[in-house]
Design brief:
The protein has 10 helices and 11 strands. The protein is α/β, with parallel strands linked by helices and 256 residues long. Bound molecules: ligand BV8 and zinc ion (ZN). Ligand BV8 binds next to helix 2, strand 10 and helix 10.
Length: 256
């Protein structure tokens, strides 16, 4: 299918945009070789992700949970950002402080590609948090074994990841909502948009005028290989791999 008319429409909207917000999901890292969630029908080695990525799962068997996260940490340490990540890093250079990259991903690939204005809604694989004193540490992506201890207090540390049933980090969630309120164009890339409250940002981008009267709806551009759960809010849908689509959009914005 010829995507060029949709890409041209996206370029036009972005060239007029004063402020851009982006929501990414696992699909933006798919071409880097990082498995997505729904593709593996939400199973990992026979475990439902909600079972290993949940406080109950942690209470039940923290060793199993650490094994799940150590495997993902090792996987991510062996992959590279793809052209889609790099295109988003170049876009941040164009808009500067008026560019906000909100991600559900925990793989750190946006930062490795050069983005600095990244709001990690669901935490990050490279960080741990202490179950005792709450100390949050960037441990890199090494295998931490199954019983890692806090250097400050000796208690067990857990992944600094937002599990199902846990609330999102307050400051990050506030920033994500602010960025969504203020953007002219909202890009939603590589997410099935079934996980809330993250997916709710797309509706907020369209319906913020219901909350602050004078705000106009943002233009929503979706980049995915198939329409997501929020397709009803999408103005321009571009259905192709983000690693190929994003560089084409960047090229068009730059061509002037
Ligand atoms: C909370 C960390 C409350 C784990 C994650 C019923 C209805 C609605 C909501 C709920 C409900 N029951 C429970 C809830 C709430 C729940 C939720 O939304 N559940 C869902 C499953 C229904 N949400 C929560 O629990 C959240 N917390 O609500 O707290 C609260 C409030 C106050 C006080 C206390 C508590 C917390 C949610 C966070 C969970 N943690 N991640 C980890 O990663 O280890 S979510 C997990 O799913 C990942 O972060 C992932 O990012 C996220 C979403 O998945 P996607 O990124 O979209 O990935 P997916 O595989 O689904 O899709 C990939 C997409 O890419 C596809 O569309 C595919 O087509 C596309 N694609 C593939 N290849 C490409 C591509 N696109 C472009 N190019 C390609 N090449
Ligand atoms: Zn501690």
């Amino acid at each position: 299918m010829d995507l060029s008319p949709y890409i041209a429409e996206a370029i036009k909207l972005l060239r007029e945009a004063k402020s851009v917000a982006v929501l990414t999901g696992a699909g933006v890292s798919a071409e880097s070789g990082v498995p997505t969630f729904r593709a593996s029908d939400g199973l990992w080695e026979g475990h439902r992700i909600e079972d290993v990525a949940s406080p109950d799962g942690w209470e039940r068997d923290s060793n199993l949970v650490w094994t799940f996260y150590n495997l993902r940490r090792t996987n991510v340490s062996e992959v590279q950002p793809n052209p889609g990540h790099y295109a988003l890093a170049e876009m941040e250079k164009i808009w500067g402080e008026d560019f906000n990259l909100i991600t559900q991903n925990v793989d750190g690939l946006h930062q490795r590609a050069g983005n600095t204005r990244v709001w990690e809604l669901h935490g990050a694989l490279n960080r741990t948090e202490c179950t005792g004193c709450g100390d949050i540490v960037d441990q890199g992506l090494t295998d931490l074994g199954t019983d890692p201890r806090c250097k400050k207090c000796g208690d067990l540390v857990r992944p600094n990841i937002v599990w199902f049933g846990e609330s999102l980090p307050h400051e990050v969630w506030k920033k994500a909502q602010e960025a969504t309120f203020l953007c002219d164009v909202f890009l939603v890339i590589g997410t099935s948009a079934v996980v809330y409250p993250a997916a709710g940002l797309v509706r907020l981008a369209k319906q913020r005028g219901d909350i602050v009267g004078e705000l106009q709806p943002a233009k929503v551009i979706e980049i995915n290989i198939t329409p997501s759960d929020v397709v009803t809010y999408v103005d321009v849908g571009i259905y192709g791999p983000s690693g190929e689509v994003l560089p084409k959009i960047l090229e068009g914005i730059r061509k002037g």
